């Protein structure tokens, strides 16, 4: 029988502020187990429903996107493949968005700190009060902005903001309910961490924030040995607009063009290992794949995804 565990990320010591292979786990589970995680919003409980734009000046940036965990998976060893299923993300009743000086794609034009609040109810996010986009309703699509495993090695660790080859702050809005994320395991136990749940976000997250919110998130973990490996996180997700299930490879790099090359290259290599010739896989990416910028504001790295329809791949005898 598989177990269900609870991890409260609001408690001190239950989150990390840097990615490192040396961080001690706060919870141990086995493959197949389910974990329910109480996830703070992106400021790690510093922004409240009563906060104002002036409050942004008092934010301790070292706690931004602090990730709940690490969660040690007993049967995960370096070289294995870890699958994380997103079973549920229960939204809080409120959220926030902000324009932060020095952060965002147009940071040179938007230099004044602004904090906006949202109410979240019955599947919609709506501006709180009458001063901002009055009358707007956004259908929620909750997802994990931060999910990752421990890196292989790094003496001082990696900071939380830019995404890396092991995941982290990818801000990929396809990592939502019903999605599965695959990671290469780099250290014993994988040391999985999550954070930064969003009620809704557009591709790119161009101002640097989404509708940030606390959540209660339910995950299930599974470990595979001697199977297909992924160099960067890979996501299987359901695309709502076209009602199709897709697989998406990641490209993470300080150069956007190189990130796009990496995402396409990962898909080509993945399809090649599934039986297609490299030329066939490359052509298929061009005629049927979707290349999308998931996140372009978390310097110095950007995240690009290459998505492919699983039903289309099934026509070629390729399954995942």
What does this structure look like?
The structure is a single chain. With 320 residues, the chain is mostly beta strands. The chain has helices at 256-273, 278-288, 310-315, and strands spanning 4-8, 15-16, 27-29, 34-39, 67-73, 81-91, 94-99, 114-121, 124-127, 138-139, 143-148, 167-169, 180-184, 192-198, 215-224, 234-239, 244-253, 290-295, 302-309. The radius of gyration is 19 Å and the shape is globular. The mean pLDDT is 91.
Main sheet attributes: strand count, strand direction, barrel closure: 9 strands, mixed
What's the total helix number?
3
User: What are the low-pLDDT stretches, counting only 5+ consecutive residues below 50?
Assistant: none
Could you tell me the CATH topology label of the domain at 4-75 and 89-160 and 184-222. Answer: Jelly Rolls
- Categorize the overall geometry: globular
CATH architecture assignment name of the domain at 4-75 and 89-160 and 184-222: Sandwich
Q: How far apart, in Å, are the first and last alpha carbons?
A: 25 Å
Structural class: mainly beta
Give helix % range.
Answer: 10-25%
What do the pLDDT scores average to? 91
CATH superfamily of the domain at 4-75 and 89-160 and 184-222: Acetamidase/Formamidase-like domains
**CA-based gyration radius:** 19 Å
CATH class of the domain at 4-75 and 89-160 and 184-222: Mainly Beta
What's this model, at a glance?
Helix content is 11%, strand content 36%.
How are the secondary structure elements laid out?
Elements: E1 4-8, E2 15-16, E3 27-29, E4 34-39, E5 67-73, E6 81-91, E7 94-99, E8 114-121, E9 124-127, E10 138-139, E11 143-148, E12 167-169, E13 180-184, E14 192-198, E15 215-224, E16 234-239, E17 244-253, H1 256-273, H2 278-288, E18 290-295, E19 302-309, H3 310-315
Parallel strand pairs: 1-4, 3-5
Antiparallel strand pairs: 2-5, 4-15, 5-14, 6-13, 6-15, 7-8, 8-9, 9-10, 11-12, 11-14, 13-16, 16-17, 17-19, 18-19
Helix pairs in contact: 1-2
């Amino acid at each position: 029988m598989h177990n269900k565990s609870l991890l409260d990320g609001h408690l001190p010591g239950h989150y990390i502020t840097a990615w490192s292979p040396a961080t001690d786990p706060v919870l141990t589970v086995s493959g197949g187990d389910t974990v329910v995680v109480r996830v703070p919003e992106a400021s790690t409980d510093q922004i409240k429903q009563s906060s104002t734009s002036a409050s942004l000046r008092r934010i301790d940036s070292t706690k931004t996107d602090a990730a709940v965990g690490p969660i040690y998976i007993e049967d995960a060893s370096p070289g294995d493949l870890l699958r994380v299923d997103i079973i549920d993300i229960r939204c809080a009743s409120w959220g926030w968005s902000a324009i932060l000086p020095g952060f965002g794609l147009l940071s040179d034009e938007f230099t004044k700190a602004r904090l906006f609040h949202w109410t979240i109810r019955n599947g919609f996010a709506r501006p709180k009060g009458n001063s901002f986009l009055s009358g707007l309703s956004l259908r929620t699509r909750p997802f994990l902005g931060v999910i990752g495993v421990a890196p292989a090695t790094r003496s001082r660790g990696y900071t939380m903001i830019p995404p890396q080859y092991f995941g982290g702050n990818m801000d990929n809005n396809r990592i939502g309910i019903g999605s599965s994320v695959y990671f290469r395991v780099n250290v014993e136990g994988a040391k999985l961490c999550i954070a930064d749940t969003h009620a809704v976000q557009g591709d790119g997250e161009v101002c640097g924030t989404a509708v940030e919110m606390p959540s209660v998130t339910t995950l299930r973990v599974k470990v595979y040995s001697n199977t297909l490996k992924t160099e960067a996180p890979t996501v299987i997700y359901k695309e709502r607009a076209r009602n199709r299930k897709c697989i998406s490879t990641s490209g993470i790099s300080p150069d956007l063009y190189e990130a796009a090359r990496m995402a396409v290259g990962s898909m080509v290599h993945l399809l090649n290992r599934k039986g297609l010739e490299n030329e066939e896989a490359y052509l298929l990416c061009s005629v049927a794949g979707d290349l999308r910028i998931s996140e372009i504001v978390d310097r110095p790295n950007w995240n690009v995804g290459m998505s492919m329809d699983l039903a289309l791949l099934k026509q070629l005898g390729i399954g995942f």
